[in-house]
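Take a look at the protein record below and tell me what you see:
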Amino acid sequence: GTSWWGQSVCEGCTTQNLAGCMAEYWRWPRPVSRVMGGWARRRLDARAGGLAAADKVLSVSRAVENRIRDQLPGADLTVVPNIVDPGHVERMAIAHQDASRQEPYVLAAGKLQPTKGFDLMLSALAEVEASQSVSVLVAGDGPSRAALETQARASKLPVTFLGWVDHDRLLGLQRGADAVLLPSAWNEPLARVALETMALGTPVVAWNRGGNPEIIDSGINGWLVSDSGDLQEALQSLASPEFRRRVGAAARARVEERFSPDAVYSQVEAVYSDALEKSGRVRVTS
């Protein structure tokens, strides 16, 4: 699942945290959760057995593969990343871009919940002097929205919460932004928001977690940040239109090279051919 338990990243299933996880996720009373620990363990073992029996198990990033490898010693794991079609997302973005929005802004988008780390983003922005003059748009909704709005007001940050935004309109906002911020509290597997933004030629400033380092070479086709100092450096670099264009062009080139349909379809075909041959259902010859 999300590997998130108790407001932090979960490092693995133990008898103790299985009970806590069930109490948190299913809202079960603690005594019931403890009694059901054996059932939860059997459920996990069944899932692991199913994955180990598969001819291939696909993960979208090395970060995901590394996280599950020790738990699935018998599984044949292969990384096949998410696919983004740069031409398609650009056509949708141009068709839905808001021409009336003239002032520069940075954008953050996603479900407003603890795993996404929007509170970390606001805390970091509050420590960055340059952020006081940069408009921040937050597209999305979720259980953390009220708390995040309160945090933004207390920090006196120029943040506008747009609420839920449909995908095509979001692409227009991504294309028009100076940058898209991708905060994360959990280990992001391989963020589609990041890939689509890069495909549009817009720089991404992502928290250095999960699969993000597999997409971004910091300072070349985007930025990886761990604290407010890193964020300040990224925002200062964004002040140069020429630098933004250069980073955006490199970002689009990365998507075309590694995440476009032409780049990924051949990987999918190879994985299925290998799985069929391994299963003995067909012999693949060159």
